[in-house]
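Q: Hi! Curious about what DUF2524 domain-containing protein looks like structurally. Here's the sequence.
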Amino acid sequence: MLNHLESSYDCARASEDLHSLKQELEAVQQGSANPTPEQQEQINRIENQIRFIGNKCDIPTHN
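A: Let's find out. The predicted structure is below.
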């Protein structure tokens, strides 16, 4: 998970970051069918980061 996403995010990194985030999301989701509150919070954060990058860099994101 990326530590800080800000309005100054460099879209040149978007492809690499999105790939990493989607892999991380998949790994967390495969962890269990009923995520703990902590796992659900992590899933939500990763999904938000994916959406942020997609919106900031005008990239369609599909989970």
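A: A fun detail: The chain has two helices and no strands.
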